[in-house]
Design a protein that fits this description.
- The protein has helices at 3-37, 50-68, 88-115, 119-122, 129-151.
- By secondary structure, it is mainly α.
- It is flat and about 65 Å long.
- The two termini are 12 Å apart.
């Protein structure tokens, strides 16, 4: 598996864990606000901590692998956003990929902004809608960047 694909998969995994963790925090805050509105003598909030545990485990595994390989510089494993710039050709390809990602953001953000006015309509059935829109923007940016790197034969 080449470095571009590895970087992309690792980034997607971390964004998935980040999104899962943010959604769990949001849901626990919704439960806490309900408790504050309707106080009861005994109350409790449960939260799924699996995404946080998985993120820490994955981070420790990545640190272990990089130490086992005895890498002295910041490697791809410690810095998963892959910016190869060893020579002028790689700098040019990375600059093109960054430009493509920037153009994609200029397309996706207005699209998501146009979708935000529908939030009051669907908020009762889909309250996490804005969080998913933000994660969608991040995933589009990463996908466009890595596809551009791959197409330019990184």
């Amino acid at each position: 598996m080449n470095a571009v694909l590895r970087s992309y998969l690792l980034n997607i995994l971390f964004v998935f864990l980040f999104g899962w963790g943010i959604l769990e925090l949001y849901r626990s805050n919704v439960r806490f606000s309900y408790i504050l509105q309707n106080p009861a003598p005994l109350w409790g909030i449960t939260m799924n901590v699996s995404p946080f545990i998985l993120a820490f485990l994955l981070s420790f595994i990545i640190m272990y692998v990089s130490r086992k390989q005895k890498q002295t510089r910041l490697s791809f494993w410690l810095f998963p956003l892959f910016f190869p710039e060893a020579d002028e050709r790689e700098q040019e390809i990375t600059a093109k990929a960054c430009r493509s990602a920037f153009i994609a953001i200029w397309t996706v953000v207005p699209f998501c902004a146009c979708l935000l006015p529908f939030y009051p309509i669907i908020s009762s059935s889909f309250p996490e809608y804005p969080i998913y829109l933000l994660l969608f923007i991040l995933l589009v940016q990463m996908t466009v960047f890595h596809i551009s790197l791959y197409r330019n034969r990184m």
